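Input record (one chain):
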Amino acid sequence: MRHRFRWFCLLAALVAAGCGASFGGAGVMQYAVDVTNNGDQPLNAAISMSDGSVTRNIPPGKTSRLTGFADGAYSVGVVLEGPAKDAYLAKLEEIKSNLLLLRMGRNPVAREIVLENLPTVERQLKDLMSSGLPGCGGTLTIKKALATVSLSNAGGVWRGSCATSDYGSAIPGREPAP
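The corresponding structure, as predicted from the sequence alone:
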């Protein structure tokens, strides 16, 4: 019986090591993606990591977190459906039309504004039509295990910005290996 128990313990340790768990050293790493709605209206955010994904409704000024135990790619996007998508498209088209009117004018300052903004609006329209998810993404690593995503809708157009930082391990007092 002891012999079987020893083999069981050895097998359990090997399985845990293969799953990334450790009984010493860095411990079990936890990765997270924090999404903050800095806009003036609620949004549905599609949050995806290597080992999971969710869609969450985030009120203005609030933050939602998705955690996992695998490094790799993450992405966050604003899910636009029904009336929200129609309103977003209408706003982008309105901005595009205003920029086109400015481009036809003879004001050099207005022309400079158009040259700066029209390509961005056209790209956003193209991205929206192909994916429907304005946002951003990146890669989580042991040294950069926390992604901080800010979504805002200044001027009615949703934009995302992403940053990564050290998050630490799930076991207090243990830091990731250098």
